[in-house]
Structures are given as C-alpha cells and as structure tokens.
Amino acid sequence: MLTVWARSLDGGRMATTRVLGLAIAGVVLAFAISQFRYYLATARMPDSQTPGENDRERRFYRRQAWRRLQISALSAIAGGCMLAGMLTPYGDHPRVFMLSWLGVVLFGVWVVALALVDCVSTWMRFSEERQVHEAERLALRYKMDKFHEEALRERQEAEELEEKTRTGPKNEEK
C-alpha cells in the first residue's frame, strides 16, 4: 500500500524513501506541536498550580517550561522546513529546496543549543539542591552528635551517681 501511494504521488517518481522521509517529518512536526501545546499550558499556569514547594522552585519550573516551549516551537519550524524540503523537488525550485534544508540545519542547531542551556540550567538547579541537602544533613549530623555527647555525659553522670549511692551507705556504716 505504501508503494502504491508513493507511485501515485509525483507521477511515480517519488520513492519509498521519500515517503518515509515525509512520514518522519510529519512525526517530528506532530510531536513538536503537541509538546508546544503542553509547555504553553504549563508556562501559563497560575502560581498556585505550578509544581514546586517554594517560590524558587516555581520560578525554576516556569523558566524551564518557557525554554522547552521555545525548543518545541523551533522543532516545529524545523519539521515544517523538513516537510517543505521533502516536498520541493530540487530541479524545479533549487533555492526553495536549499533554503528549506538550511532551515532544518539552522533550527536544529538552535534547538540543540537551547537543549544544552536547559540541561545546564537543570544541572545547576539540582547541584544547588544537593548542596542545600548536604548542608541540612551536616547540620542534622552536628545536632545528632551533640545530642549523643549529651546523652553519654548524662549516662556517665547517672552511673557515677548510682555508684556513689551504692558505695555511699556502705562507707557510712563502717
């Protein structure tokens, strides 16, 4: 069926690989549009519904949604350029063909650059979070050690007092 449809397009000159390329471009475009809709809804969410426990986390998630919204928009544009490049024959319109594939490359590079920025931002965010948790862990460890020292001191004092009470009345009787 795919071969029959491929032959029916463009007077039989369209190969199956071209149909596969069109399908890939369509999937990229459809996925980018669905991601765009999701991140647009996430970015427009009111503060009360934004995930995160405090303002800093909510700001991070909102900025992340805007970055990913840009990535999905650029991916949709690259998918559209890919679709245009697949549908435009090189011999008939060489400038349109070259510009569409140049658009795919440029928007693809831009998407990768934004994805790297998002990755670095997320890495920095979780590094900060890890440092906060490490500081909290050390503070709790310090408190636990102080409590342990105090408990040992009280136990030692109680043992000494018990020892004195045991030996004290015997010494008075002698």
Question: How would you summarize what this structure contains?
Answer:
The chain is an all-alpha fold and 174 residues long. It contains four helices and no strands.
Rounded to an integer in angstroms, the radius of gyration calculated over CA atoms is 34 Å
Overall mean confidence score, pLDDT: 84
**Which descriptor suits the 3D outline?**
rod-shaped
* Largest sheet report: none
Structure, explained:
It is a single chain. By secondary structure, this protein is mostly helical. It has one domain. It is 85% helix and 0% strand. The chain has four helices and no strands. The protein has helices at 2-8, 16-43, 55-87, 94-173. The longest helix has 80 residues, at 94-173. The radius of gyration is 34 Å and the shape is rod-shaped. The model is unreliable at 1-8 (pLDDT under 50).
Task: Looking at this protein, list some descriptive labels.
disordered N terminus; mainly alpha; 85% helix; 174 residues; rod-shaped
Topology at a glance:
Blueprint: H1 2-8, H2 16-43, H3 55-87, H4 94-173
